[in-house]
Amino acid sequence: MPKRVLIADDEKNMRWVLGESLAGEGYEVIEATDGKEALAAVEEQHPDLMVLDHKMPSPDGMEVLRRIRANGETFPIIMLTAHGNVATAVEAMKAGATEYLTKPFDLAELKLRIDKAIRISELSAEVERLREELDRDWDVEGFIAADSRMLEILSTVEKVAPTNATVMIYGESGTGKELIARAIHRLSPRSGKPFVEVHAGALPETLLESELFGYEKGAFTGAVTAKPGRFEMANGGTLFLDEVGDISLGVQVKLLRVLQERRFERLGGTRSIDVDVRVVAATNRDLQQLIAEGAFREDLFYRLNVVPITLPPLRQRQGDVPLLVAHFLDKYKAGGKTISNDAMQALVNYPWPGNIRELENTIERIVILSANDEVGLDDLPAEVRVGSAPTSMRLRGFELPEDGLDLEEVEMHFIEQALERTNGNAAKAAKLVGLTPKTFEARAQRLGLV
Predict the structure, then answer these.
(1) Predicted confidence pLDDT, tens digits, the chain (450 residues)
(2) How would you class 87 by CB atoms within 10 Å of its CB: exposed for 0-12, middle for 13-18, buried for 19 or more?
(3) Residue 138 located in a structural domain
(4) What 3 state SS string does 151-174 have?
(5) Same domain, 126 and 9
(6) 51 and 197 belong to one structural domain
(7) Which of 24, 32, 52, 229 makes the best surface tag, with the fewest CB within 10 Å?
(8) 321 with 298, same domain?
């Protein structure tokens, strides 16, 4: 879409010359012959830049400039005058002019200044957009949570962010591990430096090594130039290692060395490169179990696990579902759509195996496909309706007693049995009841069994 330039000048020949020249450069040109037309054009045409004559009737250019800035308009304005002096230039710049040129001027110079002013304006708008996005999405206060465990986690984030401590984030896919990592970076002294992501699980060993550490020219077939790795790219900032549990043992050795010595060599190189990088890692796997299986180095685990943060799955924070639903309805501009009580209860009861990511995708789908102002049960995806329906309450032939039961007492009974059957081996007991060792240990501690 071409940029729109408003030329406000009472000299017809000047408007024609400027208009023809700028149109030839691909700009859309609009014209105004006096101050009144200029103000009307700003309000109606919304220009991207304005070339404004200083001496112009009703009102003059300086007054037009002041009114435009008083109305909160921030687009670039280049002031032109045949009566230039230092005092006038200073006055124009103080009033909000971006540039100031004296007639006669070089047309090529004016076009260069217009191009420059528009590029700077676009960059400023992008920076502001990114700043607002960061404030909205990555600041701790921007997290949608009322669950006590999530609030404790956010408190931990605020405490650990200003430090250089390595953080290990545990959680199922879709629970917000990357959001937590970005929040740690955003709230740290490194926030002005790069935040670099590496999704280890998506890369084979050889490619992951070159991605992390870079390579020199000729290091392998196809390496026609040297390439810096993610550690170099993140220098001074934060490196987010996602799916760290999928990293091969060979790469783990090199990763451990970087964490210990803060230096490495590129693939195929001999020169040591020093880096200052904070590492935040994440995984949806049980690293303790991987260590027991010989698939993860114990020394690397202790280097990464300085401050562990475990994100609960959405099914364990049901009270946050209505808050998240409202947030996503607003995000996808639902246009006043509301959720019926039955539909909301179904959304709350559904176990969300894909966690927050699945919930967001579901709400986006509802906003697009539902024609109703109030979203009912029939508007929900079939898997949500079925997955949230009550069951027959049967478990391997046992039926819920008529007078009910105490779920915590049942949980304690099964955990006790599992520990007795495995002679106190928590890892084996966890497997018996279908839990990860970490979750099993947390529940056993809550119930006072360990």
Answers:
(1) 688 999 999 889 989 999 999 999 899 999 999 999 999 999 888 899 999 998 888 899 999 999 999 988 889 999 987 766 667 778 888 888 988 888 788 888 889 889 888 888 877 776 665 555 444 444 454 577 888 888 899 999 999 999 999 999 999 999 999 999 999 999 999 998 999 999 987 788 778 888 898 888 877 777 778 788 899 999 999 999 999 999 999 999 999 999 999 998 888 888 888 899 999 999 999 999 999 999 999 999 999 999 999 999 999 998 889 989 988 888 888 778 889 888 898 999 899 999 999 999 999 999 898 888 888 888 898 888 877 655 433 344 445 566 666 666 777 777 887 787 777 788 777 777 767 777 788 788 877 776
(2) exposed
(3) no
(4) HHHHHHHHHHCCCCCCEEEECCCC
(5) yes
(6) no
(7) 24
(8) no
Query: Is residue 174 within 8 Å of residue 358, measured between CB atoms?
Result: yes
- According to DSSP, the residues that pair with 81 across neighbouring strands are 102
The residues near 211 (Cβ < 8 Å, ≥ 6 apart) are: 198, 203, 229, 230
- Rounded CA gap, 233 and 207, in Å? 16
Instruction: Specify the amino acid at residue 201.
Output: G
CA distances from 139 to 102, 143, 186 (A): 47, 7, 7
For residues 424 and 119, give the distance between their C-alpha atoms in angstroms, rounded to a whole number: 67
| Same domain assignment for residues 205 and 334 | no
Regarding pTM above 0.85, the answer is no
CATH value at residue 411:
1.10.10.60
**Domain check: are 158 and 123 in the same one?**
no
The structural domain count of the chain equals 4
- Examine the domain organization and report whether 295 and 354 are in the same domain: no
Domain coverage including residue 357: 315-387
Strand partners, 32: 8
Q: Is residue 136 part of a domain?
A: no
